[in-house]
Specification:
Oligomer: single chain
Helix content: 55-70%
Number of strands: 0
Order of helices and strands: HHHHHHHH
Largest sheet: none
Low-confidence stretches: none
Distance between the termini: 39 Å
Strand content: under 5%
Length: 143
Amino acid sequence: MPVDPTVPGPREATRQSEWFAPPLTLVIFGIVAVTTLVPLWRAAGWPVNHDNAFGIRTYVYARHFSWLDFVPIWTSIDAGGFGSPMPLMYHKLFYAIAGVIALATSTMKGADVTTLALFLVVGATGVYQAVRELGASRLAATV
């Protein structure tokens, strides 16, 4: 029996109908992301670790965006006024999103934590899609 190449097979039909995770799954990922970030929301400042410069880097990006510099590669407001290539070295997408949120909300910590939550949800959705492509059920992919 010949196979008609114009008719999608069962896996192709599934891929087309499930391009994005179901809304309930996104809500679950959002709840888990916010729950994991509760210690950051509740504590004053950042937990002490190897890198406490999240707020500084977000501030640098927010300042550059306020000056309409949308691709900063050097900052003169870092390193005690001497400047540094910090915007060129660190996670551009993360700090670009956090910088925009910081401009909108006027809070560096809130912008960083919100961006972390957004990245957690997007990352979990990507893993969900990868596991679904491997043939797992929706429940297994969500877990």
